[in-house]
């Protein structure tokens, strides 16, 4: 969420409070579904399920942000993929 707030603020010029609210909102929509879907797959399949699940999260978050911000679609996509890639990398490092 802090990454979203920073990225939305500085890459897209979204006011700080709105950027924080949007970051919280997209995470509240996508994270429960992501974690639920990953816990439903067997542990040996989780690496294979992770990337499509993350891709689906990116698509949903992009659509939500594009709907609420109404800004440049490709730039919003870069922000979404960048924030999710950083989050995934941090999670994988913590798990290692």
Question: Which descriptors would you attach to this protein?
Answer:
elongated, 0% strand, single chain
Could you describe the 3D structure shown?
Helices cover about 85% and strands about 0% of the residues. The chain is mostly helical and about 100 residues long. The two termini are about 20 Å apart. The protein has helices at about 1-10, 15-40, 45-70, 75-95. It has one domain (about 1-95). The model has no long low-confidence stretch (mean pLDDT about 90).
List the helices and strands and how they pair.
Blueprint: H1 2-12, H2 16-40, H3 46-69, H4 73-95
Helix pairs in contact: 1-2, 1-4, 2-3, 3-4
The shape, in one word, is elongated
Instruction: Give the count of structural domains.
Output: 1
| Secondary structure tally, helices | 4
What is the straight-line distance between the termini? 22 Å
* Total strand segments: 0
Q: What would the average pLDDT be, to the nearest integer?
A: 88
Main sheet overview: none
Helix content: over 70%
Structural class by sheet pairing and helices: mainly alpha
Poorly predicted ranges: none
Strand content: under 5%
- For this structure, the quaternary state is single chain
Quick summary of this structure?
With about 100 residues, this protein is an all-alpha fold.
